[in-house]
Design goal:
Elements lengths: L8 H19 L16 E5 L7 E5 L5 E6 L3 E2 L4 E6 L9 E2 L8 E2 L17 E7 L1 H7 L6 E4 L8 E4 L2 E4 L4 E7 L6 E8 L2 E6 L8 E6 L11 E5 L9 E11 L2 E4 L9 E2 L7 E5 L11 E7 L15 E8 L1
Parallel strand pairs: 9-11
Antiparallel strand pairs: 1-2, 2-6, 3-5, 3-8, 4-9, 5-7, 8-12, 10-11, 13-22, 14-15, 15-19, 16-17, 16-21, 17-18, 17-20, 21-22
């Protein structure tokens, strides 16, 4: 068995004090848990938070002096800017939440002709970029020039070629990304005698929008008396997600589906006056990677048959992603 060597009391006390000092130096200031990198690390890996129109942004390579977001595939100091913030001496610390200007920073979006948005827009592509102080000093006056990472083996810190400024990866990185918060719609397949249904995705919710065009001969009224949504590729009662029928009273009794009152476009789940909801739309809307069946019918539908040849009835299937 290996035993522990005994140390003189004074030497033991010195070792303990030295250990405490080393630990304190390693921990640093509690107010800056993410201290800047030592030396000159290459900048990379901008991460854009998903599931929100005001994402948090993080990156590798240390703190920066400028952070910009352009609408479209090009980083530039021009009118495509939707956000540009600046803080001298690399005082922009990660993470940064879109729209929240960090303490000590300035919003320079308008200075270069850009227009700040309250939030980023669904299904649009943006270019996110960050710059170190030394690069910003060289190009802050380069309005309307594109910014690119200089990947050459002997890249200069900042090099201008025509309308483009190439910046060394020690001082700059960028990333293109599309904002995709809500479900998307694809493979819409309309069928039925009454009309052609179209389903398009919303840009501010998980509730797609339904429209239709009447094609059945002799039908002139474009309003509907009933509509519904099923979580399947064909109609089945057990898959009902949303079902709405017109409602009126006759002899003191409710009558459903015998009056055309539903007007296109319809956002799935929206309240519709003078109707009765038999199946409540899901509070969180539709889900990704699912099959759905949406149907419409007017007041002359028999309320039972759902064949492709059924009069006064139509449906469409679609997928989400």
């Amino acid at each position: 068995m290996i035993g522990w060597a005994r140390l003189p009391r004074g030497q033991y006390r010195s070792l303990v004090i030295a250990g405490i000092l080393a630990l304190a130096l390693a921990c640093g200031d509690d107010e800056s848990p993410l201290a800047p990198y030592a030396g000159q690390p290459v900048m990379s890996d901008i991460a854009v938070e998903g599931g929100t129109l005001t994402p948090k942004l993080t990156w590798l390579g240390g703190y920066v002096t400028a952070l910009g977001i352009n609408r479209g595939p090009v980083a530039a100091l021009d009118s495509t800017l939707v956000w540009l913030i600046h803080a001298g001496d690399n005082n922009i610390h990660y993470p940064v939440t879109y729209g929240q200007v960090p303490t000590g920073a300035q919003d320079l979006t308008a200075q270069y002709g850009g227009k700040r948005l309250d939030q980023l827009e669904e299904d649009l592509g943006y270019t996110f970029w960050v710059l170190k102080e030394e690069a910003w000093k060289s190009l802050s006056s380069s309005a309307n020039k594109q910014l690119r990472v200089n990947t050459g083996a002997a890249a200069a810190p900042v090099e201008t070629r025509g309308d483009t400024v190439f910046i060394h990866p020690l001082s700059h990185t960028q990333k293109g990304d599309t904002i995709d918060v809500f479900v998307n719609v694809k493979e819409v397949k309309p069928t039925g005698r009454l009309g052609v249904i179209n389903v398009r995705q919303s840009r501010d919710s998980n509730n797609p929008i339904i429209t239709w065009q009447i094609i059945q001969s002799g039908v002139t009224d474009t309003l509907m008396a009933a509509l519904g949504l099923v979580n399947a590729q064909q109609y089945q009662v057990t898959g009902n997600l949303w079902e709405v029928w017109s409602e009126e009273s006759s002899g003191g009794q409710p009558v459903y589906g015998k009056k055309n009152v539903i007007r296109a476009p319809v956002t799935m789940g929206q309240p519709i006056s003078t109707t009765h909801v038999f199946a409540e739309y899901p509070a969180r809307g539709l889900e990704r990677n699912k099959d759905y069946y949406v149907w419409i019918a007017n007041k002359d539908w028999d309320g039972r048959r759902r064949l492709n040849s059924t009069n006064f009835y139509a449906h469409a299937t679609f997928r989400t992603w």
